[in-house]
Design brief:
- It is built from seven helices and seven strands; from the N terminus they run βααβββαβαβαβαα.
- With 171 residues, the chain is of the alpha/beta class.
- The longest helix is centred in the C-terminal third of the chain and has 11 residues.
- The radius of gyration is 17 Å and the shape is elongated.
- Strands 3-4-2-1-5-6-7 form a seven-stranded mixed sheet, with helices on both faces.
Length: 171
Amino acid sequence: MTTSKNFEKCFITVGTTRFDLLCSEIVSSPVLQALKRSGCKDITFQIGNSKMDSGDYELDGIKLHCYRFKDSIENDIRNSDFVISHAGAGSVLEVLNARKPLLVVVNEDLMDNHQLELAEQMQVDGHLFYCTCDTLVCTLDQMDFSLLKPLEKANPTYFFQSLNRLLKIQD
């Protein structure tokens, strides 16, 4: 990862479904070594319903805290230096709204992969990087989070103006 800042704390989320391939890739030595090269020392890993066991581990010199679910992942996002996430719209927007650097890993096993479309467009717009499990190590080594730009805050004015026009409501 080419950037001037060290990213010691990483939060990883697979969401509410199973993403066994991402779980196994994250704990593989090549991925852990790539994370270590970026300065990563601690990983908080929300594993959802994946096959991986929850618990605390140390692998390749990186501490991992793995859990299935919490009521909210907001604190995990806030306490991280960067986030690796599945490509679900809710998770992507939550991380971007928290102004955290984001790498999205697309689950290629999903049918009708709308997640790929979202990840591609958000990368084109400069808000995140995305990859697949096959390209995770290469992406970790090459991405530069300093190139990302924050997602603009939503402005509901235009929505309400359009809604008023549609419903023919006067101001």
